[in-house]
Design a protein that fits this description.
Structural class: alpha/beta
Number of strands: 17
Helix content: 40-55%
Largest sheet: 7 strands, mixed
Number of helices: 18
Length: about 575
Amino acid sequence: MSIALAYLRFSSLQMQGKGSSISRQKDMVTKWTEEQKLLMGKNYDEVSYYIDRGKSAYDGTNLREGNLGKLIEEVQRGMFPEGTPIVCESLDRLTRQGVQHIQQILTQLTRTGCVVHTLSDRQVISKDTLESLGGIVTIVAVADRAREESETKAKRVRDSKLRNYKAAREGKKLMTKHLPGWIYLNESTGKLCVDPEKQKVVTRIYKLRLEGHTFQSIANIMNDSGVPVLNASKGARHWLPNSIRTLLMNKSVIGYSSPSKVNPLIEEIPGYFPPCISETLFNDVQDTHVPAKRGKKTRPEYAEAVNLFKGLTVCKYCKGNVFPNGAKPGYWGRLRCMGHHNKTCEAPPIGRYAFEHSLVTRMFPLLRFFDTTKQEDPSAAIRSKIGHLQTGIDNLYNMVRDMGYTPEIGKRIKASENEKEGLERQLIAIKKNIESSTEENMSQLNFDNYNDRLTMQRILSRTIERVVVDSFNERAHVKLLNGNVLYGFPLYGDSDASLTLQKALSGTDDELFAELGMEKPLHTIYMVTSAKSQQPYDYNAVYYNKDLKQPYTVNQGESPHHPDDSKYWPDVEPDYPNE
């Protein structure tokens, strides 16, 4: 099977608001693959897309934080055969940082034999191209033009925003069309006005805060009263604690515009909006906020404080994160989703200990039969980023030598050196924390020990991409980092999928082994309830492989692993959020 790689990027989230940028680039890639099939006889069965949304190539964000860094890392690890095409609209999609950066990126992409194709100017860049004078001259010209265009656009945007800011200070125009939810533009007069009904809502929220209500309590009152959110056009349908907190600290309610986060010349403007509440009420509410203690909080070191599946679990119904609630020493608490916490999702909480114990003791043994690792060492990508940063630092010092020191260059040097030091610390941490994520390692750890649970947490995070919790049906759908999926895994009961698979594999001949596709990781594994079974927790395992026309079904075995729920759960538990 032939595969093509495509890198797509756009810098501005507003540009993608109508879906035009990515759609246009995808259309260009599709047209290119059709031309390759028609004119060159090359049929690419699959196109793997690496997309960076809202990532700038001018400051290298797409390389440091985006999928371009991932693409380079996978290419350098030799994951793609020689001659694999890497398609992009133009070189400025890769970087706008100048000649040295584009040469370094192209060298990394072509070193193992991949070939870069640009669709706008039809360049074909291979390892040989980078060794020829003609190829280098063309690349230099394109990189210089892209850099100049970016600098020109950036200057125009900065100047335009500054002009708008100065006009706004003089009361001549609005800086932006985006207005607070309680403000609207009167089309007939051209003036900003306060919506009287929404003004009552804002005032009520501020007064509730003065009465001592928490952010969560105020959100509950608003939702229970059926009060609509202030700005439903942004997609919000329910009041959340964070939206209450933001409103209570927003100086727009007393008429101030927000200062720019990136341009220190654009400061807040008093009187920009008509006031919604009095300054006295606003200041009284600010006085109720207790400032956070300085310094890092001490982390509680008891086993119940460690969430094994931290950042991995989401609710099937509301798509919100699932997190422990009510955990304290001697009590594991329960797992509930953010929607249940905010009273917007009816999915019930589930027992945390049984959930974690079930997945670790019954599901994780199954994973040893599959390649659960990504076979990915982030060190290569980090070293590549450090190399880019060092090149940029050297260039900045050359600018200082040639043009003299300026505060702007000094800031850029300091920022780059700080980022480089941070990446170097990451490398050290990676070397210290590399451990084999095998079932044998997990079996040696104590489930109820604080430090062992931290180790379990790291192992699981390198094995599992996402756990979708279906608390209504007491099942979980688990996606591994390598793409395999366990669908419908029962959270309770004594069935152990590993025993069935072990039995199925132990006595198979080569023909059946090949039929199962076990010479490589299975792409999807489905666990489904058996229609013939009378036992509520018995189920069949159906193993799908994309090369098989029919699933392979085997009966399920049993496992002694099952926690005693009554031992860990009281009849009545406190219902309060961890805040």
